[in-house]
Design brief:
This protein is of the alpha/beta class. It has one domain (3-263): Ribonuclease Z/Hydroxyacylglutathione hydrolase-like (Metallo-beta-lactamase, Chain A), CATH 3.60.15. 38% of the residues lie in helices and 17% in strands. The protein is built from eleven helices and twelve strands. The radius of gyration is 19 Å and the shape is globular. Bound molecules: zinc ion. Zinc ion (ZN) binds at residues 1, 104, 106, 180, 199, 208.
C-alpha cells in the first residue's frame, strides 16, 4: 500500500484493523475519504515475460503464471474486483487457478482472498499474515476488527524460503521479515526472470512503513538485500504499486532509504521528536519525485523508535 492507496482504502473495514494500534501508539488517523467506485475499475493485463502476466486494477499488482498444472497467482486486490480479476485470468488461461500467494496482509492485496478461496484456490502466506487475517486488531474507534472468513484464510503457511515446481517452472517464495509488515513475502519466477516484490517496494510514491503490524526501517533495508540477491540486470521487478522496475532502480531505492533512514536515526539519537525530524526535511532531495513525505517520515521515525524501544523493553524484562 502506498500513500495514494492508503487514502482510498481507509473507509474499508480492514483499514480499521490497520489503523487501530496507531491510535494507541501514535497519532489518530486522518478522517476516512470515500471508498473508490469499484464498478468503474477495469483490469489491465500486461505480458511481462513469455509466461508471466501482470494485472492492474485498484490496489496492489497481481502476478499470473499460467500453465498446464493450473494458474499460480500473486495477491488478490479488493473483494469487489474478484470477478473481473478471474475473468481477466480466464483470458490468459483456461486452466483453473490453483495457488495464490499473499505478499502482505493489507486489504489491497488480500481483500479478494475469500472469493478466490471459494473458487478452490489454495492460498499461501507467512504465518504472521494468517494470524493477522484471522485475529485482526480492534479498530481505531474501539470496534473489534473483522476476521477473514475461513474460506479466505491461507491453507499453507511457511516462514522460510520455499520452492514450488509448477507448469515446468520454479517459483521461489522469499520471506522479508518485518519490512512493510511482519508477514512480507517476495515471489521470484527465475524461468521468466520476474520478481514480485512486497509492499515496501513502491514505484509511484513513498511506501507505508506499517510498524503497527511489525514493519520498520531496518527490516525494509534487509528486505531490499533479499530482493537484490536474486535479481539480475534483466529481471522485471513488479513493485507493490507503480510500473515495473529494474534491479538498478531497486538498488537506487535502497540507497535512498539508507540515506534517509540514517538521517532519521541521527535525529532520533539526539532525542528529537517527530516534529523536529519533519522540520529537518530528511527526504528533501527526493521529494520532487516521491511526493509529500510527511506520512513516510513520520512512520519511518516512529517505526525506528518503536523497534528500539520494544527491543529495550524486552531486554529489561529479561533482566527482571
Ligand atoms: Zn501495504
Amino acid at each position: 500500500m502506498n500513500r495514494r492507496h492508503l487514502s482510498s482504502l481507509a473507509s474499508l473495514s480492514f483499514a480499521l484493523t490497520l489503523l487501530a494500534p496507531l491510535a494507541l501508539r501514535a497519532q489518530a488517523p486522518a478522517p476516512a475519504p470515500a471508498p473508490p467506485d469499484f464498478s468503474k475499475v477495469e483490469i489491465k493485463t500486461t505480458k511481462l515475460a513469455d509466461n508471466f502476466y501482470m494485472l492492474e486494477g485498484q490496489g496492489g499488482q497481481i502476478g499470473v503464471l499460467p500453465g498446464p498444472d493450473g494458474v499460480f497467482m500473486v495477491d488478490s486486490q479488493f473483494a469487489p474486483l474478484s470477478e473481473k480479476i478471474a475473468a481477466a485470468i480466464k483470458q490468459i488461461s483456461n486452466q483453473p487457478i490453483k495457488f495464490m500467494v499473499n505478499t502482505h496482509v493489507h486489504g489491497d492485496h488480500t481483500g479478494g482472498d475469500e472469493n478466490f478461496g471459494k473458487m478452490g484456490v489454495t492460498i499461501m502466506a507467512r504465518p504472521q499474515l494468517r494470524e493477522r487475517l484471522e485475529h485482526p486488531s480492534p479498530g481505531a474507534n474501539g470496534q473489534p476488527g473483522v476476521p477473514m472468513p475461513a474460506a479466505g484464510l491461507p491453507k499453507v503457511t511457511y516462514d522460510a524460503p520455499m520452492t514450488l515446481y509448477m507448469n515446468g517452472e520454479e517459483i521461489h517464495l522469499i520471506p522479508a521479515p518485518k519490512a512493510h509488515t511482519d508477514g512480507d513475502i517476495a515471489v521470484f519466477f527465475p524461468d521468466d526472470n520476474v520478481l514480485a516484490a512486497p509492499g515496501f517496494v513502491s514505484n509511484d510514491g513513498w511506501p507505508v512503513i506499517d510498524w503497527w503490524t511489525g514493519g520498520w526501517t531496518g527490516g525494509m533495508l534487509d528486505g531490499f538485500d533479499r530482493l537484490l540477491e536474486v535479481a539480475d540486470a534483466n529481471t522485471r521487478i513488479v513493485p507493490a504499486n507503480g510500473p515495473p522496475m529494474t534491479r538498478a532502480e531497486l538498488k537506487a531505492q535502497q540507497a535512498m532509504y539508507t540515506t534517509v533512514f540514517g538521517r532519521i536515526h541521527d535525529l532520533l539519537t539526539k532525542a528529537l521528536g517527530t516534529d523536529e525530524v519533519l522540520a529537518a526535511k530528511p527526504t528533501a532531495e527526493y521529494d520532487a519525485k516521491f511526493g509529500d513525505p510527511k506520512q513516510f517520515v513520520t512512520l519511518a521515525f516512529q517505526s525506528t523508535w518503536g523497534h528500539l524501544r520494544d527491543a529495550y523493553d524486552t531486554r529489561l524484562r529479561n533482566i527482571a
